[in-house]
Design goal:
alpha+beta, 5-stranded antiparallel beta sheet, 4-stranded mixed beta sheet, 8 helices, about 30% helix
Length: about 300
């Protein structure tokens, strides 16, 4: 699409060199896959994120908020409109008997878990191996090792077209890897959120993080991937079904269903999004035919398909 010159001028007036055109998004994703954004604007605070989105809304431009680049597959054709690269990373701890942490949406979630450990604060050990940013975790109810965002969130600050609002954990209506935001039931952008923590000791928290990290390394493959490709169906695991279907190691182009864990697709170098998508369709079709189970994507398909 052609981006209106006036819109670009307004963005550049506000953000200067942080506005770029026709930029490849592959380097900003964990799978290192994806085409170019018509416009990429990098923001470094929640206020900048809000300002950028307000301008985009004013001009009616399509846009996508990109954090750590995990749990998504960007089309080879790229993303039309604007991609806002969120690098808003302020973190504020509050101590006392009921400690909390308030984070902006661009904070790397695993880093936050380790910062909590360094302060002897527990509650986020499960997040130490979760890829991506804090905002994405709030948006999608990220979870691991029996914990998820719904157990920690107190409230999140979001931007809507009516201004900034606070949503409680109840108002987020969390489900398995989903929320009122992810389901599109309200249109809002996560700016920041506050989580409840518990007082502990550095040693106790660090031991648990190390345990979770070792379990993750032993179970999941190294290499460039999007994270878990499919949600686990009720009472089962997507990886088990994919392995039982004999699909581990299946390769299309430079994209492969991991030989270590069937729910991870690996980019062995310059894999195409269309190759990953072909593997997705192959897995869904095979598992449906063999076991009558419809595997639902956990990763988000982003861009012009």
């Amino acid at each position: 699409m052609t981006t209106p010159a006036r819109f670009i001028d307004v963005l550049r007036l506000k953000f200067g060199a942080a506005v770029q055109e026709n930029i490849s998004l592959a380097p900003y994703t964990s799978a290192r896959i994806g085409g170019s954004a018509d416009v990429l604007v990098t923001v470094t605070s929640a206020d900048e994120l809000a300002d950028a989105v307000k301008i985009i809304w004013d001009y009616g431009m399509p846009f996508y908020i990109l954090g750590g680049g995990s749990n998504l597959l960007i089309s080879d054709k790229g993303v039309r409109g604007v991609v806002v690269l969120n690098r808003a990373k302020e973190v504020l701890f509050e101590g006392g008997d009921q400690p909390t942490v308030r984070c902006e949406a661009g904070v790397i979630f695993s880093n936050l878990a380790n910062r909590c450990a360094s302060k002897g604060l527990s509650g986020l050990e499960w997040a130490a191996t979760v890829p991506g940013t804090f905002g994405g975790a709030v948006y999608g109810n990220a979870g691991a090792f029996g914990g998820d965002m719904s157990t920690n969130l107190i409230w999140t600050e979001v931007l809507t077209k009516n201004g900034c609002e606070k949503l409680t954990v109840e108002q987020m209506q969390y489900g398995y890897r989903t929320s009122i935001l992810k389901r599109g039931e309200i249109k809002a952008i996560v700016l920041s959120a506050t989580l409840r923590l518990k007082n502990s000791s550095k040693e106790e928290v660090s031991v648990k993080i190390t345990e979770f990290s070792e379990r993750r390394k032993s179970a999941q493959p190294p290499g460039a991937s999007m994270g878990s490709m499919f949600k686990n169906p009720a009472g089962d695991h997507a990886g088990r079904l994919i392995e039982a279907a004999g699909l581990k190691g299946t390769r299309i182009g430079n994209a492969e269903i991991s030989t270590k864990h069937g729910n991870f697709f690996i980019n062995h170098g310059e894999a195409k999004a269309e190759d990953i998508l072909a593997l997705i369709h192959l897995v869904q079709k095979t598992v449906r035919e063999k076991y009558g189970v419809e595997l639902e994507l956990e990763v988000e398909l982003v861009g012009d398909w």
